[in-house]
Amino acid sequence: MQNQSLPQLDDLYKEIILEHYRKPHGREPLEKIDYQAEGMNPLCGDEVKLCLQLQDEQIIKVHLEGHGCSISVASGSMLAQMLEGKTVTEAQEITKHLKDIMHDRTNGKVVDIGDLEALEGVKKFPVRIKCALLPWTTFEEALVGHNHVEVS
Amino acid sequence: MQNQSLPQLDDLYKEIILEHYRKPHGREPLEKIDYQAEGMNPLCGDEVKLCLQLQDEQIIKVHLEGHGCSISVASGSMLAQMLEGKTVTEAQEITKHLKDIMHDRTNGKVVDIGDLEALEGVKKFPVRIKCALLPWTTFEEALVGHNHVEVS
Amino acid sequence: MFDVNKIRKDFKILERKIWDNKPLVYLDNAATTQKPNVVINSLVSYYENYNANIHRGVHKLAEEATTLYEDVRQKIKDFIDANSTAEIIFTRNTTESINLLAYCLDDSIIKDGDEILLTEMEHHSNIVPWYLLRDRRNITIKFTPITDNHELDYNTLEKLITKKTKIVSITHKSNVLGTVNDIQRIAKITKANNSILIVDAAQSAPHMKISFQDLGCDFLAFSSHKMCGPTGVGILVGKKELLEKMPPFLGGGEMIRKVTFDGFTTNDLPWKYEAGTPNIADVIAFGTAIDYIEKIGLENIYQHELKLTEYAFKKLKQFDFLHIYGPKEITKRAGIITFSNPVVHPHDIATIIDQDGVAIRAGHHCAQPLMKKLSVSATARASFYFYNTPEEVDIFINALNKAFDYFAVGACKELKQGVKSKK
Amino acid sequence: MFDVNKIRKDFKILERKIWDNKPLVYLDNAATTQKPNVVINSLVSYYENYNANIHRGVHKLAEEATTLYEDVRQKIKDFIDANSTAEIIFTRNTTESINLLAYCLDDSIIKDGDEILLTEMEHHSNIVPWYLLRDRRNITIKFTPITDNHELDYNTLEKLITKKTKIVSITHKSNVLGTVNDIQRIAKITKANNSILIVDAAQSAPHMKISFQDLGCDFLAFSSHKMCGPTGVGILVGKKELLEKMPPFLGGGEMIRKVTFDGFTTNDLPWKYEAGTPNIADVIAFGTAIDYIEKIGLENIYQHELKLTEYAFKKLKQFDFLHIYGPKEITKRAGIITFSNPVVHPHDIATIIDQDGVAIRAGHHCAQPLMKKLSVSATARASFYFYNTPEEVDIFINALNKAFDYFAVGACKELKQGVKSKK
Ligand SMILES: Cc1ncc(COP(=O)(O)O)c(C=O)c1O
Ligand SMILES: Cc1ncc(COP(=O)(O)O)c(C=O)c1O
Question: Which ipTM was obtained for this model?
């Protein structure tokens, strides 16, 4: 277990992640909230509240609030950016694929996830995977109507 | 701590102890019970009930019942034999001296304790000291009016 | 291949000499077992390389320690065949596992007027927690009797279960009689009656293959220290639905999701039931113990103990004044031999054979009610584990012989004869 | 003579390299400390030579193990200056010690309508047990506020204590602020008011000399793993009269005097509160840890940590955008430095400096209410122990510098400037 080689910080903190962190998307309030959930990482205190506005099966707008580290904030920002305009099914597929990437079980499947690719570097920092997935798990729970969620 | 020299069984099971064990004193019921207490060793289940009949300050008769190993039974038998006829103060002194012997704190003081000397060998078997003292602690507690006692 | 002499080399303590160079003959395995070198090394390796508080740290050590700790949960889930790691809770020992249930089932399950059914062969750890619960709630506690062959009386058990019986808590294997109870049979009854079935597996988990799912009980408890693991770790396996429904037990770090000045919410299972810094090192070393036991093989363990018990029984026949407890059939009670006789008190036996390096237990074995039922105040018990040998049984028997001789010939000949003639 | 370089040789883990050969700089001591070799050896020696279940056996191993175990009680009684060994109870950790009280004081002390007084700087382990008690009893829980200098507001505390205040439970030293509270001062108030005073000494016992008798509190709790001892051992020190009056906590072996089919009676103190097989090996190794700490000397430990804290503070001044929590005066908060800043999140700091082998904690430190009070969701914390060095502080500061540079220069320059100009 000892002395794996040093993962590079630049893998974790890709420029694009830092940009999302500095200017996160999805901070404007919604006109109408169809689904919402609060997520938290009970071991560090990171919290996110995620609200969705839908039209039929399409996600119109995503709103996020809360506080967290650069990874969870950037991941939430990417979520807002990516999922707006997608159908619920498409959004769920993206979520699943991101989780598969994080847990090394894509089995070679390739899905276009845009900016999200930048999160792949988080894998080399296992304790931070929770941070990256927090907004996504919260998104899933919002859809099934669970109001609270946590990642572990 | 390891490998102290082997204590000799004959130190523990002196002939006189085995005799007391085989034919314990103090088993006849009393006419009148002035003090009594029950004692037990919670870790092995040995139990003794001790009753005293007094006249003024003198112990007239001791009654014991219960079950226990050879050491506790013999010690109880010796107690009955020794204390009958003694004043309470004398009996307490003997008790104290026996405890001092067991815990190696006589500071050279010598008291005539008759058969009880045979119990000195128990000292070499520290876990059995509780057995030897059980009737005596129960005796002390009977005098102060505690109905239950245990040795530890 | 099961080779006891090779196995013994895994245990440093088995080289120990007692007194003036007597080899240790450790036959007190039902109280606690010895630990193989790999388990001890696991502790050393943890403290020398990874020690950190878990779950809460971002740094390397904390990450490693957390992984090592949570991996053990997975191992135990597999070992005991539970549904998921959410069902595996780390406690201090079997006793704490059962107490946790007595506190937490209280609020969610037990109402005044309800009944709890135990058996006459329970260890204090599966009696006193329920007495404590009775001090808080107005409930009745009943004891399923044992038969003359020292087995559970299943017919009476069936009659004792009523609509009021909310909890049935029962040992899988008696630490005195060795009797193994038929949990599946009881589970059918409790399921039909909607009672919760708790199994005390402290004496079974170390010695036989157990599947939580196959047994069909709701909760199962056992202790690391009785199965080659360190002291300070117990396991509670529980059905997820029940663990979710029950309130938390201890409050503090780890078990919370969120705490405010007004209240708190609980963490997910299984952490909901683990408050404060866990016994990290010992849990990790217990994982090593599980690996070790699985390498030896539970079927091998069971068979070896059965052979030892048979051999010891045959040898014990020479002491015809001995009273041996437990079912007549050896297959029903492998690994444990409890006995007494009216001449030499168990304490005296234990002291005398200790002189030959033989470690057995004498006393009530934390089962005073059972002692009462057996009309005896104390008994002697030899209990085996897979590292014991027939040669050790011989030493034990010889030492016993000396003990009986010492008392009988030295002083109590007539008493011994008395016993014999009374038979 | 206190020689930190000599002392470091006592800890094998301090030779460990992180990643590609970075020396471990362990500054997470408030979470758990490292263990000296003597403590690890103590575990090995126990398991290789004496391992047996205690209190109940007549044989040699059981006798030796019992003596080793009970000797530690005496050691702790002396270490913490309690009245007698009857007042020393072994638990799993500080958390369990406090929960024991919340369960047992419930029945004997707390009535509906009563109040419990805590403080805003408590660890979850001294909050949630009382919330759980509130779920059983209709009681009110109040929090003594902290001042702007992050000390306890004693004046308000005095006002918050009323006739209804049955329990005051308070940390001796905050694990976030480092603040050391004046227990003697509070004890005078609680004594006059007949309230029970509980002290959470998890963070103080490892770092300063404490006398239970001098403090004047009724109960005191701390953890082995935070003071060079193994995980899995906590201590509860309690006044004998109260421990006698309180009902038992967990039921089972060891804690009983007599069990029948009808009921039970409890064992003497302290065993009344120790149910089931204790964490024997770790208790014995904790005894070795106490010896080790006393050899180093608590005054030396305190002074060394004070010096390190002073040094680190001076160095931290260069980061003028940092917010540092706790009293301004370093003597009031030795050993712990908690900080945050609005640019780089504590998690990111911890990840970045971990690359240089520096282990600190980031998060809420199990003190979410306090975080709320401080208006921050997470903070970073460096905490020292006697084996840390000024050179390690340098590595820490350099690593921090990198972290701030990484974020500020690499990406958030304007944010950092924003912070600076806002000041
Ligand atoms: C002030 C304080 N109290 C209580 C605790 C809980 O200690 P443990 O996790 O050992 O129960 C801690 C440690 O995290 C602490 O710092
Ligand atoms: C049947 C049974 N149940 C429970 C226990 C209690 O185990 P522990 O002391 O590890 O809590 C024991 C062990 O003594 C036992 O034999």
Answer: 0.94
